Amino acid sequence: MQIQWYPGHMHKASKQIKETLPKVDVIIEILDARIPYSSENPVLKTLRGDKPCIKILSKNDLADPEITQLWQTYFEQEHGVKTLALSLLQGNTNDSDKVRQLPDLCRKLVPAKQYSVKIIHTMIVGIPNVGKSTLINTVTGRAITKTGNEPAVTKMQQRINLGNGIVLSDTPGVLWPNIENKNAGFRLAATGAIKGTAMDYVDVAFFTASYLLQTYPTRLKERYNLETLPTSELELLETIGAKRGCLRAGGQVDLNKASTLFLNDLRSGILGRISFETPNMMETELEEVRIIQEKKAAKKSLRKKKRKGL
Predict the structure, then answer these.
(1) What DSSP character marks residue 197?
(2) At 32, which CATH number?
(3) According to DSSP H, which parts of the chain are helical?
(4) Quick one: which of 1, 54, 177, 263 is 20 to 30 A from 185 by CA?
(5) Which domain CATH number covers 264?
(6) What are phi and psi of 5, to 5 degrees?
(7) Residue 61 has what DSSP assignment?
(8) Are 74 and 211 found together in one domain?
(9) How far apart are CA 18 and CA 33, in angstroms?
(10) What is the pLDDT of residues 20-51, one digit of tens each?
(11) Based on the domain organization, do 18 and 62 belong to the same domain?
């Protein structure tokens, strides 16, 4: 899916992140536990180098716990990377305790400054609507940043003193202008990282329905009280629409309303704990992207040769 949502503040924020990174000791990257690969900023991955990184798998209460564990194991194979799986729900005592340990974890990841009086500079990054503001408010114990269910709530970078010699740079949620993996765009849209005005709900619902029919069929049958499972994504959405009254004049199913309802069920957790990708899936898709990139590069090279008359 080609995402057409890269507003000016995201472009500005991306430039600020690149400028600030050299001064940062520890990066705190918040990923959506349902889509850890698709929500990981490829630009940041390239620029990070060997800087220590804490990857927080947010919204883990909505993700498949077994798959979340696979991702934590996968990420921590990389040197200097630690992970935390959190729901980031208000009032979650277990989450709050883990989050408040972040300053200590940051210090441990920078041994040279662990026992010194030097300031440890950290930066928190992540896609829109992933829970950055909630995490900051939890770790500080007060409402410093605005939270919301809509993407793009935070629109400018700010510095926050966490105490204990830790200074945090908070950044707006950013996407990247070129998402080469077509499936990643659909996953970002399905989980709510993209504003509704920038996507086609029906297309996203078709992608989501196709995936769930293959991987979580029982959840669909239970949620929508289905005796038999539909054989296609269109049939599933039409069945849901008919059952939930998403009808136009003449009894025809309104696919847009049915798709919106279906995606809202997914995002709210009504469909259960669902993950959209595994480390093995990611490796396969990365190889597919690599092949596409090589073909594009070969075509570009051929065009240059033709222009030069070679």
Answers:
(1) G
(2) 3.40.50.300
(3) 8-20, 42-48, 65-75, 93-99, 102-108, 132-140, 182-190, 201-215, 217-223, 233-243, 255-268, 279-307
(4) 54
(5) 1.10.1580.10
(6) -145, 95
(7) T
(8) no
(9) 25
(10) 888 899 999 999 999 999 999 887 877 888 88
(11) yes
